[in-house]
Amino acid sequence: MQVSKLPIFFSHVSDALYNAPDEVRRLFHGRGRVYPGLEQITCDWVDSQLLINVFKPVEEAFIEALKAGIDTLSQTDSWCAKGVTCAAIQHRYLDGAPLEVVFGELNDKPIVIESGLKYQLNIGRNQNFGLFLDMRLGRDWVKSHASNKRVLNLFSYTCGFSVAAIEGGATQVVNVDMARASLNKGRDNHRLNGQNLSQVKFLAYDIFKSWGKIRKLGPYDLVVIDPPSFQKGSFALSKDYIRILRRLPELLAERGKVLACVNSPQVSGDFLITSMQEAAPQIGYQSRLDNPAEFSDIDSDAALKVMLFEHHPETT
Predict the structure, then answer these.
(1) What tens digit of pLDDT does each residue of 270-292 get?
(2) What count of Cα atoms within 13 Å lies in the side-chain half-sphere of residue 242?
(3) Where are the beta strands (DSSP E) in 179-304?
């Protein structure tokens, strides 16, 4: 990355900050490669805090210029108008992704709002703080299409899709994730929103060893699949995704929908379409959801792909 490009970063952050809603938001997305020389930096607005992530090693001069720019930004009208309480840099390229506070005092467990729903975050303990902001429109879609639906949420993480589904009127959501700690955070997210936990199940399962148990709780009107691109020992997108798609016909109700996601820049949206045609031809492709405008990317196939499918068993 280039020190000479940091004025562009701060200009965009200042404008985005001034116009930011009172919700969690990405303010600058260098990883979309729209801003040459700033490809490995992002900035998020999180409960009156600016969280800047640097993803690849940079020269010390870059970090020093970044800190100086934060100091200058702290004296602007945008900063004062929004009441910024903290600015921090997370060095994602270092072991443990350490967080360096450069202004104010960090609230490492903020409760944030997205589309009117509350989520508990955990900043600085992990690379990800508990909510993937590029999936905002996916959660919005689920909320608006969940009424009276039974929903299966695979790789549920902290259950953002589940919270959105219950808010949208889902009758039941089944969350499946190997990480019990993430499911516990998901349970907290449901409680934050005053939702009825009797409508929600939290299954700390290895999906590939638990299809029978998952199937018994169906059939499902909507299945959400949002896996990691790679998880050592448990999931490799290129070979394991199709194993999930093959199971969908036995999980879905007639006309049931699938929201399938891929967030690897090496895999295009066509991967999901062709894999579905091969694994479950009775489940047809419908459309691709837009990503939030703040996540603009010079290559749509390198960005998050959120694809919608529908089950038509009569086509088998």
Answers:
(1) 889 999 999 999 999 999 999 99
(2) 11
(3) 200-203, 220-225, 230-231, 235-236, 252-262, 283-288
Pairing of strands 283-288, 41-46: unpaired
CA atoms of 233 and 87, how far apart (whole Å): 36
Q: What is the pLDDT of residues 3-38, one digit of tens each?
A: 999 999 999 999 999 999 999 999 999 999 999 999
Both tokens of residue 26? 């990405």
- φ/ψ of 227, rounded to 5, equals -85, 165
Q: Residue holding tokens 């009156």? A: 48
pLDDT recorded at residue 167 = 97
Q: Please give the domain boundaries of the chain with CATH numbers for all domains.
A: 3-120 (3.30.750.80), 133-315 (3.40.50.150)
C-alpha span between 11 and 250 (Å, rounded): 52
Pair of tokens at residue 128? 């990800």
pTM over 0.90: yes
